[in-house]
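agent: user wants the full assembly modeled, not chains individually. Plan: 1) parse entity lines 2) check alphabet per entity 3) run joint structure prediction 4) return tokens. Steps 1-2 passed, two entities, 640 residues total. Proceeding.
--- entities ---
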Amino acid sequence: MWFMRQAGRSLPEYRALREGTSMFEACFDPEMLAEITLQPIRRHGVDAAILFSDIVVPLKAAGLDIDIVAGTGPVVAEPIRDAAGVRALPVLEPEQVERVAEGVRLLVGSLGETPLIGFAGAPFTLASYLIEGGPSRNHEHTKALMHSEPGLWHELAGRLADMAITFLSAQLDAGADAIQLFDSWAGALSERDYREFVLPHSAKVLSAVARYGVPRIHFGVGTGELLVAMRDAGADVVGVDWRIPLDEAVRRLGGGVVQGNLDPALLHGSWPVIEAEVRRILAEGRAADGHIFNLGHGVLPGVDPDVLTRVVGLVHELQP
Amino acid sequence: MWFMRQAGRSLPEYRALREGTSMFEACFDPEMLAEITLQPIRRHGVDAAILFSDIVVPLKAAGLDIDIVAGTGPVVAEPIRDAAGVRALPVLEPEQVERVAEGVRLLVGSLGETPLIGFAGAPFTLASYLIEGGPSRNHEHTKALMHSEPGLWHELAGRLADMAITFLSAQLDAGADAIQLFDSWAGALSERDYREFVLPHSAKVLSAVARYGVPRIHFGVGTGELLVAMRDAGADVVGVDWRIPLDEAVRRLGGGVVQGNLDPALLHGSWPVIEAEVRRILAEGRAADGHIFNLGHGVLPGVDPDVLTRVVGLVHELQP
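--- prediction returned ---
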């Protein structure tokens, strides 16, 4: 078990460490990213560490003019919407993420038996940031480009897949024990569009890292309709949010290993509510060939970290 | 066929009319709301008018301190999170929405054969605005209250259902020909939670207006898992967004009448893309006992209104 976004704003020690440091400074500082990654391991005793990073880190590393604005998210100076923009997209070289790899090596040295999960954003979600210019509710420019200029779309997504491969390979070469491909916005697509425009590129990423022989987790939100397609992209573990029960997810997948699916919003509820949900989820997860307990999406900043620690204790008590 | 949010920012004549007038001023001015409602009928020739309003209009009418902030959405001065807040929620009296009813009477006089669809926000979506204090991506306080204090939740949702009934009844008494209950955020819930915490209250609204004998449309976004539950709430027509094909929606529903499901983002695409999508959707909609062509969500502000007109022409040509 681990929590998506377990390293971050929910922890007072994180907020203290980050004071006066920008998100990108933290993501490219080997000592700081290692320390932030370790904080939830020490505090909560979760079973895995997830690299502290951001899905736009490889874009920044490659030289793109992008910023992470507090309260907004990633903002791209010049949104990419035409062939010139796509062709101007820089290629990510391994040495540009060397400071992240250095952080991974520090972590592998400190973590001992605790596995480290590497991390990259999937091509669709990265493309949406680049095309929209920032976080988007409707992804209208992305979807319009995808459908109206499919050749250009595939070129852009292919380049982003290459970046994700370089970024993940750097983490795996440095010793990461598993990877998670985040396609945060994939749930905005129909299965038809996902299979045509997105799956080939995510599959390219997942197959390129297959040679490391580590578990590959594939995660999205609101992807109940896409679970089989996301598994078909080459995932060993499929993330499931809270919208469908794990046993139903396993039924759709015909077996396999799933990850999820406590609604992070419920961590704001009372303990009896959380306990009942954890018990239900563990019971439903028994339908799978394997279940990694997690949230259905990331820890929300306002959550009480003691509640997270208590959830870890309960999961370990019920599933030793 | 009609378009959700057909009356609004996509139209230059709307932007001109609204200049210097706040959203609430427009929603409570009978002549202005009637004129705005008529604009897309004149321009696009859609088959139905939808009352220009906002889902928080009944809350404002009842005296709640709420504002609609441009670029943000509804903002509530004092979020409701405890029993005192719930009990202080005012009751909506029919005379408080008399100016909206007057607008409906004006519209019924002008529209001739074109039906007018009335409009209300469903209890869950209204509750989320009140509890979170504004638009929310995660609905964490709403879900926490729902699960941790179910008695209080049901009291709040019951009061909001009463408001929706009063608001819809005022529109129906004034001559509206159909109604749509908008549960914009219901897709954030699992079916289990929807059935336990939301369905009873939406069902109360839909059954209270059954005596008018008009079609009742029930709409949400990302509700592929909830279609049957939303029908079970007492809907004659179930809205379907673009995430699942209409024939699959009809299979889940076991028949019936559906509304949808063009992805509004695709209206930013090229015409051949839009035409192919419209043809596909009309073909898939033939699986239903009836299909109201619409978008899967509202018209986005940046869309070219000529594209909307062209879609209307195509739908009328293909399905005369």
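agent: reporting back. Residues 150-173 of chain A form the longest helix (24 residues). The domain at 12-318 of chain A is CATH 3.20.20.210 (TIM Barrel).
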